[in-house]
């Protein structure tokens, strides 16, 4: 079904789910007040975490569907864009409120 390269990519992406799950424990600490964060940071952390989880699963699904249906180039290559979005979209949420006490998102905001 998947060639060797895509198996390695799928395995790496599945391992990243561990990082996303660990981020969920951090998010719980923030929401419960055990980690300092203002309301803007809380909402951006929550949005970044949710986007990461959804885009990783969507990226895996798109990769498997593209590989199993022998989609022609360049569309097959563009399917990796979903996996790249799983990195860059949540990073925008997290990095835009990375300062100590931001009152508004910085230029990295989506």
Automatic annotation (TrEMBL):
Protein name in the entry: Uncharacterized protein
This protein's UniProt keywords: Membrane, Transmembrane, Transmembrane helix
Superkingdom of the organism of origin: Bacteria
TM regions (residue ranges): 6-31, 43-66, 78-98
